[in-house]
Amino acid sequence: MEIIEVSWRTILLYVVIIIIFRFIGQRGINQLNVIDLVVVLMISELGVVAIEDTGDSLFYQLIPILILTLIQIGLTYIQLKSQKLRRVLDGQPIIVIRQGKIDEKQMKKSRYNLDDLLLQLRDKNIGDIREVDYAILEPSGTLSVFKKSESKDDSGSIFLLPLVIDGIIQEKHLNLINKNSSWLFNELKKRGYKDVKRILYCSFLNGHLFVDIKNE
């Protein structure tokens, strides 16, 4: 009976798609980038077609789903190795409030309007923009906010801004703390780190560098 075939196809595809999404990664819905969302929608649609179209072999209907899965896993692996690709696919954090002033140019560039900004500030119990020193729009769409009373430490550095990621110096972040790459190289050398490319992550806070070296 057709109802029996539809039922077992539904159960099988449910299990297969759950396993596929576990392989693809651990991101939440609000953390999906454009590529992730496209793959999720395509796999979901192909799954529905495979359930409804009982006239075709389920094996052949699974092939495009598996191909999409392999493409996504491959892209994810390449993203781990390439910060440039991550920036293309995931986007970059954008500073929408800088030193208490709204950056209209960056907001227009990211198609982020003032109503959205005020809404997200209210979600963080901030009713007055004058309380904010820095606000950063993350690639996921969330807003990271640093109040004027807490955004800087004694050395003038801003919280949560990495200086090195995957061996690549974050020049924009250095500019925000009024430092440059020469300063960073000197500070790293003082601590015995001569090759920036071997550094997985480095941040600066309270006058101290935190450095995490890549596994060889």
Automatic annotation (TrEMBL):
InterPro entries: DUF421, UPF0702_alpha/beta_dom_sf. It is a multi-pass membrane protein. It comes from the Bacteria. Pfam families: DUF421. Its main location: membrane. It is found in: Cell membrane. Keywords: Cell membrane, Membrane, Plasmid, Transmembrane, Transmembrane helix. The chain crosses the membrane at residues 6-25, 32-51, 57-78. The keyword Transmembrane applies. The keyword Transmembrane helix applies. GO terms for cellular component: plasma membrane. Residues 81-204 form the YetF C-terminal domain. Belongs to the UPF0702 family. This is YetF C-terminal domain-containing protein. It comes from Priestia megaterium (strain ATCC 12872 / QMB1551).
